[in-house]
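Lecture 7 notes: from sequence to structure.
We start with the chain below.
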Amino acid sequence: MTVTKEQVFALAEEGKLWAGNLIDGFTSAAGKLENRTPIDNSLIGYIADGDARDVDAAVKVARDTFESGIWSQLSPSARKKVMIRWAQLLEKHSEELAALDCVDAGKPITECLNTDMPATIDTFYWYAEAIDKLFGKIAPTGIDALGLIITEPIGVVGAVLPWNFPAQMFAWKVAPALAAGNSVIAKPAELTSLSAFRMIELAYEAGVPKGALSLVCGLGEKVGEPLGRHMDVDMVSFTGSTEVGRYFLKYSAESNLKEIVLECGGKSPQVVFEDADLDAAVPHILSAAFWNMSENCSCGSRLIVHESIKDNLLEKLTSGLTSWKVGNPMDESVAIGPMVEEAHFMKVKSFLDITPQEGGRLVTGGKIHSDLGSGWYIEPTIFDNVTANMTLFQNEVFGPILAVSTFKTEEEAIALANNTTYGLAASFYSQNVHRTMRVARAIKAGTVSVNGFSEGDITTPFGGYKHSGFGGQDNGLEAFEQYVHTKVIWYVNS
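Predicted structure tokens for the same chain:
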């Protein structure tokens, strides 16, 4: 039976939403944590308070299932059929899943329905279809030998997920890892566990072996660290802050040298040259800067604009923001919901306080809507006169605050764009085709979009330079590479 968004909202109001551990198909929880919605900080239910014992149990089940071959050795075409059934069930329950992310993360329901869930479902379909279209290689040997180059699933995979795109990030990691034949243990962010729990229930219904996909909910120090340190976990794929990403490298070094893939923070530049089509650029600039309350790793939080057009562009941006309504994210007309929790709200608020002290000029916004629900609502804000040595220019905010800086020359623009420790994404605007090729090459980022904001799509790999991560990439066929071993089988013709 499908569930409507109104039914999910009603269950949230009654405090009846639940996400427990799913280990070998059984729901368990030695303890539970309160789950409060950032919409109004009310109790919407509980999640399991997992710990190292739950991780141990999940890893044992995952290893036994992997070695049994029930999933890892299943033919690609058979895995494909199961994954497609799962995607079909996700499609059938998309409204329910969208509503769960809305109340769990405070994400606008319109975005959840029209952007997040379609992208999540497309990811599952895409990797399902790719399973039986990956071929091995034959080495160019002489007649005295035959060299086969094949891939095999890596084993037990830990997927440690962020809170900003709960369903979509689950898909980015779990879909390729499971499609490749691995046993996967998902650890959702403790702030947003609801959609992962429901999606795994639907996976079992589709025919995914219960031991091949587990869920362990709870705090990072009680679940994430034991997963990162576990001697029988073969790799961990993590999306989140650079600070926590460093911990997973440490856990690997101090345990079994498991493979680690990191997609971490960003401080992405948007560079606008003097020949840009400003009217076409403005919607993209605003989307890059403020979409999803700017709680987005690839958020274009630094606007680097040629000094000759800055005033004109700021007028257009300010005008464009009038349609970005702040309010309850369950309202389909709302574009900006709350920050995900009070601690994060306070961090974002600190940038509103320090930027004027360091010389930034408030252009628009800056208001905290303390009268709305939880009070963690910050309207889209733009600061001008931000220089490269200022806190707002260098530090990831993960909230709706845009820093504006100016440049005179192309060389200065590139230098400013690259002047952070991050390198996840970038975008720039110019009608000069020769310039676009030069600048796209010169910017140090994993994804560079030209004359628009984009992270690419499911067909293109997504990952970062510098402190934004390394070790592998989400999306594209390249995502499979981090979840498999490459093996050479060498036949001697004697």
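Points to note: The mean pLDDT is 97. The CA atoms of residues 75 and 278 lie 52 Å apart.
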